[in-house]
Amino acid sequence: MTPAFAQEAEEEEEVRSSVSGTNVQENQIIVTGLRGSLQRNLDEKRNAAGVIDVISSEDIGKFPDSNVAASLQRLPGVSIQRNGARGEATGITVRGFGGDFNTTLYDGRRISTATGGRQIDFSTVGVDFIGQLSVLKTPDVSLSSDSIGATVNIQFPKPFDNPGFRAAVTASGSIQDRSGDIVPTGGILISNTWNDTFGVLADFIYTRRDTDSNRVYVSGWPGGNFAPCQLTGSAATSCAPTGATTDPAVPASDQRTIPGWFPQQYGAEQQRVNDERIDARLALQWQPSYGTMITLDNNYSRQNVTSENYAFGVWFNQTDLRNVELDENGTAVNFTQAGSPTDFTSALNKQILETNQTGLNIQFEASDNLSFEVDGAYAKSKLNPGDVVGSLNADVGYGGALGTNLQFIVNGDSSGAFPSMANFGPAGVAADWANTALIGSHVTVNQTQRNTDELWQVRASGQWEQDDLKVQFGGQYYEDRFDFANYSTFVNNFWQAYAGYGDPSGRTTGIAPLPASLYEGSISLDNFIPGFDGALPPSLFVFSPVAYQDYLSSLGDPQAQNIPGYNYGCCGSNFTGTFDQALDGGSIRDITEKTWSLFLRTSFNSEIAGMPFFFNAGLRNEHSSITANGNGTVPLEILTSTADPTLLTVVLSAPQPLTATSSYNYLLPSLDTRLEITPEFQVRFSASRTITRPTLNLLYPQLNVPTGQRIGALSAAGGNPSLKPYIADNFDLAAEWYYQPNSYLSVNAFLKNVSNFIVGGVTNQTINGVIDPTTGQPAVFAVTQQVNGPDATVRGVELALQHVFGDTGFGFQANATFVETNRPYDEQDISQTGFAVTGLANSANFVGFYDKNGFQIRAALNWRDEYLLQFGQNQNTGAFGAEPTFVDESFQIDISSSYDINENFSVFGEVLNVNGNQQSTHGRYSNQLLDVFDYGRRYTLGVRYRY
Fold first, then answer.
1. Which of 264, 340, 352, 509 is most buried, by CB atoms within 10 Å?
2. CA-based diameter of the chain, in Å?
3. What is the DSSP letter of 572?
4. Is 915 exposed, middle or buried (0-12, 13-18, 19+ CB in 10 A)?
5. What is the pLDDT of residues 898-943, one digit of tens each?
6. What do you get for the CA distance between the two ends of the chain, in Å?
7. pLDDT on residue 4
8. Can you list the positions of beta strands (E) in 514-588?
9. Helix, strand or coil for residue 150?
10. What whole-number distance in Å separates Cα of residue 73 and Cα of residue 71?
11. How far apart are CA 735 and CA 636, in angstroms?
């Protein structure tokens, strides 16, 4: 491992030229700070067995970026995904493969994550005291072969990386331009060794980010068929769309025969996010004798993300739309809906993710040629532990008699426009949009997801090395157990306790008006998303869901007294005044995955025609077994709501335990070669087979039908414990030219043939013969389920250039990735089984820097083209399968700078998103906006001390 404290002691140092390829000192260059880090990264890339990129700490407590993913995006072939509300880089895509296709390790160990996937959220990783990040784009069979994208190894410093006493302290404050609050970040690291025998390293980091982001959203663009009478210019005197398409008894104008897409829900929202994280690490090392090292370490992190959300939303049903104008692609770009209700919502959302990993590593040399390593670890991750409520929601508004003949208008492409509404407000009176005298209570949804992930792992390996030959061998076992449970007010139907909007809307249920004290202010929607076309209503309400629910509870127990406005048709005798969550029995999942691995790797150095030649061949066998337990339920009855004609309640059977098992075995070979044609120029060829396992949250055995649903949007989801891994045959051919110290040019072509793609199909099904009371026919559910399916080929080229202009201090890094597939998305395919490779996009990065005499400044420019993120949208109930989500093209500029006051103290500053980049997504067509987030700029100023 590259020491985290490397090259700290001297302000200037001599290094041997990386051009010579020998131990002859050719010249001297200054390699402090950023340039010293870049040189170490370059050396490791050049000498690696396979295709690898490295980012190392510039010094103790001085990592290049404030976020791990932000650092990784500087590398060729690596792009990032951002959390829209926070603007934080939370995940990476490598060569077009994102999320769960990439494995992230801590010091070579797997990480548990209670989110349910295999990827980690990089915003949960404290970056200040990381030693090195390594991105392995070809597999190291002694480490892992189960990532089709890449293996990211995060390496932490240890006491004997740099013996003696070391300390580092960092403190900073940051502010986001919209939130206006300065929030702190700070960390301390202390390391010491005694008598070359015992060492201790401890660090602690506190990080906080506050972000106010503005969002305009469409929850989904489901596909379905319109009736001719719904279209603009229709001459039909009446319009009653039905499901019939060939029934001679139904007028042709009422038969739904014209395919198209419509927005399921539309609104705007401000999210005020507080992201707090604690990271702590303790590492103990004991060297009882020469050649033996025992390391015991513990990594702890706890992230608490709290958001206050204020929004409005309007709901659309396809059969209720009139005067519909469809564009050439079938998108409803203009329509009206009579009786449209309007809801104002407030939510207090919390997500706590706590992870703790303890590991023991023993390395010892049995002889000059033979060494062994044993490594074991236990990790546990918890999502929302304790009594935390994941989401407290308040929903108020008007409808019924105050419903409006609302008009919806698409204004243009999703990258520059959001839709507009006309004729909004109670009964179409825009001046009464926020008239609190007309607003009443509606639904109250509380939900909490509680997951636990436990991971046991042990690895034993040996290495025999003599002259130019090295043989590595060993095995690994890990066991991953994932428990999942969901609690909500949907289960007991308490969400509808005070639904209906009250008297002003002509309803007997719902409380109106609500106390004026509940309204704490408003948020203007004027210029809500700067630079975007479109028009929004005037404002949003600011009000507390906690205070709102407390008020409704203060009305008393509706079972003990008559409470006007309570929805006596909703909850039987169970609701006594408080909005308690209930456990969804059908959500319970207990999934265990056990994997045994054996590996063998041989490498040697030789010559071909006098040119140095490196050869590395490995083989890894992986055997996995899965046991999936869950509770199955089926719908028994569907009930309408007396409070709101758009709401439905699905009555479920009692949960029944289900168990399923599966297993698979794969032999995974790898080959890496490197030929040094000249001391400055080398070529590589690599070939391998790798797998990516399905995420644990897809392996449950039951069909899950939500209890709280809406008319025209019935849905269900099923797991599949028999899913097999993706399999990829990978090929790399690279040429690298190290033409001067700290500078190189490389071209890398890659090809991946991937089979067993896991696809989420959406099929329309009846379940248990249950009747839809709104149609009198068997209820049709949009059922989502994952299956192994098609094959695809992904190919591309990575270009990278790093250049330092002598000893001027100036330099730059530039890279670009061009990628394509034989299975692109076909927007004209409206079958249930449409398929395409997700995540593929051309990308480019440029980092220009100056680093000399203790002063450093760096500007990073990152561009990524439009790409298909996933199949599925927030509302995905259409007739044409899983609708896609595309992320629009993005370009962001970040600037950072630091100055060394002396050899111990430095100051630093950072501006993120200098150009005000915004994140937007769309559906099947570019004018089907799904989300646009405006998360502004962030400014940071801080100090560092190191000793």
1. 509
2. 96
3. T
4. exposed
5. 999 998 899 999 999 999 999 999 999 999 999 999 989 999 999 9
6. 21
7. 33
8. 519-524, 539-543, 582-583
9. coil
10. 6
11. 64
